[in-house]
Structure formats: structure tokens, C-alpha cells
Design brief:
The chain is mainly α. The protein has helices spanning 8-17, 27-36, 40-47, 51-69, 74-78, 109-128, 133-153, 168-194, 204-209, 221-236, 246-249, 258-270, 282-292, 299-312; strands at 82-86, 93-97, 103-108.
Length: 313
């Protein structure tokens, strides 16, 4: 039972305290990324010690730049929302009101790891495809097997380093795509809060620990589509003055919608219907974004959404 008057942050720490799994990045991945990405080792050393340190980096790199781009006065309200990471192997993200009525967003570290790994696999496949099709398919197939273990078997996955070094522009693209997709996940959860979709949830801790979906009131397909649309509108409004790679995402916000392409790949490869009851299919969500965004976002971005959905059909 939670303590009466507990803040959202304290409630988050209580949830985290009940999860046994902890963040772990294999040494081979640390070594590979440190070699490929300037400054990675230093950044990893700063954030690898505690979940709080990871959350601080997550806040500075993604959450704050996103809120900075949300129109006033809404961004003031959203800046008060606690955003935390859950070090568990269930690839998920959720928003709710705590038993004391505070808004809380939680992103599972497994989802972030899966997105990062998928984008590296995808870019490696594209890099190798023309010169070594067999190796490209092997890498992609093995990579998807790791993702299957996460999304279908729901077991801890230690994503390995991919045994190919990508050119720097491929590395940066993989990083930018990952950051864009993570921004979509965060913006989607903020949108649920802004649109009034979250409601008080009880026994949240046991739901998380047992890897079940957190109970929410009114999780319907329309709400998911509304949250997608609101989130994407915000991402299309990212300011070019945003920090770090978010600045580049602001120039190509359609990359954020590729998280739905990832979900479609998961649904198609593994024929999993585990989210069908509360979420529309990823392809339906992508089509909805395109249809509802007419006259709202630049037509060039809508064209990218249309092309994505056409390729997936």
C-alpha cells in the first residue's frame, strides 16, 4: 500500500523499488558505441550508475526539449508532470493518475532498448544489402529474433552489439531515428494527460511487477488515435532551437512516426495481437495520422506518412 500524501515522484520510486530487473548494457555494446560515437563512453559513465541518473539524462535530452516546443500555457502544466523510467523487461509505456491524483508518465527501459536496437539492425541491413544481401538478411533475422523474445516471450533480453561498423552518417541516422521515436512515445503519453484520458489507477505496483497492463479507465481506440494526433502535432512544432539531436528531429518530424512502422513490423513478424484490445493496429494508427493531419501539418510531412502506410500495406 502507498503512503497517504505521497508525491508522484515518491510513488514512482516505490514502483521502481519493487522491480528486480536493473538496467544493464553489455560490455560489447559499450565498447562498440564508444568507438563509433564520440563522447558515448563519457555519457555512459555519467548515466550508468543509477536509475535517477538515467532519468535526468532522459529529461534533459528529450522531455524538456519537447515541453519547450508545446504552446503556452500548456507547456507550463506539462512541465509539472513526473516522467520516470521503469527498469523492467516489459516493453511498454504508460500514463496515469497516481492514487493521490498526480499525473505520472513511465517509460520502460526495455522499450527504449528495443527501439535503439531495431534502428541499428535496420540501418545495418540497408548498409549491407547491396553488397552482401545474405549477410544483411542474417543480421536482420537474428535481430528480429531478439525483439521477438522481448515482445512475445517477455523475457529479459541482452541486445548484442551488431558485428559491423556503420559509417558515421548511418550511426547518426540510427541515433536520430531512435530519439525521434522515443519523442513520439513521450508525446503520446503527455497527450493522454492533456486530453483527459488518464484516470486513477489502483494496485499499480502489482500490475507492473507482474507485467500486466496497468488498469486505466476509458482506453479505447479513439483515445489512442487522438493521442497519436496530438503528439504528432506537437512534434511537427518542435523548435529548430531545440538542443542536441532534437534539433535535427525538428527538421524531419516524420521520423517520429516510424515508431508505428516498428510496431507494425512487430505485429506482422510475430502475429501478436496483444495490444489489439486497447490499441488499434499500427497501420491503422499511421493511416489515421495521415487522414487527420490534412490542413494541419505541412503537406510534405503528410506525404511521408502516406508513403509509409502504402509501403506497409
Amino acid at each position: 500500500m502507498h503512503a497517504i500524501g505521497m508525491s508522484a515522484l515518491s510513488y514512482l520510486r516505490e514502483l521502481q523499488g519493487g522491480v528486480r530487473y536493473r538496467i544493464y548494457v553489455p560490455d560489447d555494446i559499450v565498447a562498440k558505441r564508444s568507438h563509433e560515437l564520440q563522447g558515448y563512453q563519457e555519457a555512459y559513465d555519467r548515466t550508468a550508475k543509477t536509475i535517477e541518473a538515467h532519468e535526468e539524462w532522459f529529461k534533459r535530452a528529450l522531455v524538456e526539449p519537447l515541453i519547450y516546443s508545446v504552446p503556452r500555457p500548456l507547456n507550463v502544466d506539462l512541465s509539472a508532470v513526473v516522467v520516470g523510467l521503469m527498469p523492467t523487461y516489459d516493453p511498454n509505456a504508460w500514463s496515469l493518475k497516481t492514487p493521490d491524483g498526480d499525473d505520472l508518465i513511465v517509460v520502460h527501459t526495455e522499450l527504449l532498448s528495443a527501439l535503439s536496437f531495431y534502428n541499428e539492425v535496420q540501418l545495418t541491413y540497408l548498409f549491407l544489402r547491396d553488397e552482401n544481401t545474405k549477410e544483411a538478411r542474417r543480421i536482420f533475422g537474428q535481430g528480429m529474433e531478439f525483439i521477438r523474445q522481448s515482445f512475445v516471450d517477455r523475457v529479459p533480453v541482452q541486445y548484442p552489439a551488431i558485428p559491423h561498423e556503420l559509417p558515421s552518417h548511418f550511426q547518426q541516422l540510427a541515433l536520430m531515428k531512435t530519439m525521434a521515436q522515443e519523442l513520439f512515445v513521450i508525446a503520446h503519453e503527455f497527450s493522454h494527460i492533456n486530453l483527459g484520458h488518464t484516470a486513477a489507477a489502483t494496485e499499480t505496483m502489482s500490475s507492473v511487477i507482474q507485467h500486466r497492463s496497468v488498469e486505466k479507465i476509458g482506453w479505447q481506440h479513439r483515445q489512442e488515435l487522438d493521442a497519436d494526433f496530438q503528439a504528432f502535432r506537437w512534434l511537427c512544432g518542435l523548435k529548430s532551437s531545440s538542443r542536441g539531436l532534437v534539433q535535427f528531429v525538428s527538421q524531419a518530424p516524420f521520423l517520429a512516426a516510424e515508431v508505428l512502422v516498428f510496431m507494425h513490423v512487430v505485429e506482422s513478424f510475430f502475429a501478436t495481437g496483444q495490444q489489439v484490445s486497447s490499441h488499434p493496429s499500427a497501420l491503422a494508427r499511421l493511416k489515421s495520422l495521415h487522414e487527420r493531419s490534412e490542413g494541419v501539418i505541412p503537406e510534405t510531412i503528410r506525404t511521408e506518412l502516406f508513403d509509409m502506410s502504402n509501403i506497409l500495406e
